[in-house]
Design brief:
It is a single chain. The chain is an alpha+beta fold. The two termini are 28 Å apart. Helix content is 15%, strand content 46%.
Length: 297
């Protein structure tokens, strides 16, 4: 199989790729489009992690697991120092069942790097009803001047977080279903719209909440992406994606395994994230030709 190397790790590359690579005629795929998809995927994964962590921080502290009241220090414990969190009702006060909770995560305007190397700006505002005894919750969130690695993310999103029933081989753990209806505007002005769902399940590490490095997530789902030329692409995770938080200490990208299959006008291509190793490569294959794509910031 013929393999070509395409470096797409910076916005500069996306801005300088020739027009023939930026957009296909609609009947074929390009490696640049595969890079676009991987960058939008990274933003979805980071946002989902942040919102889920903030929901968990409220629930765990307010139900007494960590002292009974969520404070300013516990709210930011999994965020970089450049991020701030505010809440209604205010942090440091107790919450009663049935209360609508609003949390604002502010990453500032100059660029706030996450532990995985991705750089965020702007705000995420999330709302949910505090129901400590419920096994399923719906969390809504929106973006205010929010950028992920210089890509502007807009739209309203929600996810449903459900706790599984414990079995002899698996403890109770959350499954998060993300509903996406968003647009991503790249630095060169191209706008991509995405609608669909991604389901994320933590399959390791949930029993040690104070240790993030041992968390492993499995992601499935399907969605459509509308390109600037109005071409619609259908994407399905055909082999579950694997996200390993331990890769932060080895290589910044955390998505290390799984396959996404793309279909457009009867043509098919795949994006393979590897075999679980902590590297920053994915392999895009179309018409028997494979391209190694560097993912991440």
């Amino acid at each position: 199989m013929k393999t070509r190397i395409l470096i797409v790790a910076t916005a500069f590359v996306l801005m300088t790729v020739g027009c023939s690579k930026k957009e296909s005629s609609g009947n074929s795929f390009t490696s640049d489009e595969a890079a676009v998809n991987s960058k939008i995927d990274l933003s979805n994964d980071d946002v989902s992690n942040i919102v889920d962590d903030q929901f968990t921080a409220t629930m765990d502290n307010s139900t007494g697991k960590n002292g009974g009241i969520e404070t300013a220090s516990t709210a930011v414990q999994n965020l970089p120092a450049c991020a701030t969190v505010t809440r209604l009702p205010a942090l440091g006060t107790s919450i009663t069942a049935g209360t609508l909770v609003t949390k604002t995560i502010d990453f500032g305007t100059t660029g706030c790097p996450l532990a995985n190397g991705n750089i965020l700006k702007g705000k995420i505002i999330m709302t949910f009803t505090y129901e400590p005894t419920a096994t399923s919750h719906t969390i809504n969130y929106q973006f205010i001047d929010f950028y992920h690695n210089a890509i502007k993310i807009e739209g309203n999103k929600s996810f449903t977080r459900t706790m599984t029933i414990a079995t002899a081989t698996s403890p109770s753990h959350p499954i998060v279903v993300m509903n996406m209806d968003m647009t991503a505007t790249f630095p060169d002005g191209r706008v991509f719209a995405r609608v669909g769902t991604r389901t994320r399940e933590i399959i390791a590490g949930y029993s040690t909440p104070a240790v993030l490095a041992d968390n492993v997530y499995q992601v499935t789902g399907n969605w459509t992406t509308t390109f600037p030329n109005t071409t619609v692409q259908y994407s399905t995770i055909t082999t579950p994606l694997l996200v390993k938080m331990s890769c932060i200490a080895v290589n910044k990208p955390l998505l290390v395994q799984g396959v996404i299959t793309f279909v457009r006008n009867g043509n098919t291509a795949t994006l393979d994230y590897g075999n679980g190793d902590c590297d920053n490569l994915a392999v895009f294959t179309i018409n028997g030709i494979s391209y190694n794509i560097v993912i991440g910031n």
